[in-house]
Amino acid sequence: MKKINLLFLFLFTFLLTSCDPSQGILFTNKGESNVKVKLIINSAVKNDQLDEMKKGDSIVFKLIPHNPEETEGHIYFGRGRWNDENISEISKSIKSIEIENDNYKIGYKSQPAIRNLLKENYKGIIMKSLNIKIDDDFFK
């Protein structure tokens, strides 16, 4: 029994110290109506991940509730942990973010507004993630 506990402790410690989490922004539709998320990319700031995903000058996610394959939109930035500096750099790469459902539309057009949206949705204890959950109360 002691060997199992020791093995478990070793594996748990190894996993926590050896692997970096995925660094990305996840948009999740938790509401009852369709949601459209549109990020207008700042062409003056170079960001390979955003430039690779954009079509024209923007990245658009259509998030459909109750459909597991279409409730999330994800932008992957590689391995690493989020911090204030990373969030500031990413926010400089985005000109604006528009989030709308059937009834409402919210726009984040300034760098402070975009940075605050990202920072407010950066949560977790050990494996922090940046997940923007959009439910019906998000627009109120």
Percentage of β-strand residues: 25-35%
Strand order of the largest sheet: 4-1-8-7
Rg for CA atoms: 18 Å
Give the CA-based shape.
Answer: globular
Structural class: alpha+beta
Largest sheet: 4 strands, mixed
Number of strands: 8
Mean pLDDT: 87
In helices, the fraction of residues equals 25-40%
Order of helix and strand elements from N to C terminus:
HEEHEEHEEHEE
**Which residues form runs of ≥5 with pLDDT under 50?**
none
Cα(first) to Cα(last) distance is 54 Å
Count, helices? 4
Give me some keywords for this one:
140 residues; alpha+beta; four-stranded mixed β-sheet; 30% helix; four-stranded antiparallel β-sheet
Written description of the protein model:
There is one protein chain. The protein is an alpha+beta fold. It has 4 helices and 8 strands. It has a 4-stranded mixed beta sheet. A hairpin with a 4-residue loop joins strand 5 and strand 6 (105-108). Helix 3 (84-92) crosses helix 4. The longest helix has 17 residues, at 2-18. The radius of gyration is 18 Å and the shape is globular. The model has no long low-confidence stretch (mean pLDDT 87).
Strand and helix layout:
Elements (H helix, E strand, L loop, with lengths): L1 H17 L3 E8 L5 E7 L6 H6 L4 E6 L8 E8 L4 H9 L1 E7 L4 E4 L2 H10 L1 E2 L5 E6 L6
Quick description:
By secondary structure, the protein is an alpha+beta fold. The chain is built from 4 helices and 8 strands; from the N terminus they run αββαββαββαββ. It is globular, with a radius of gyration of 18 Å.
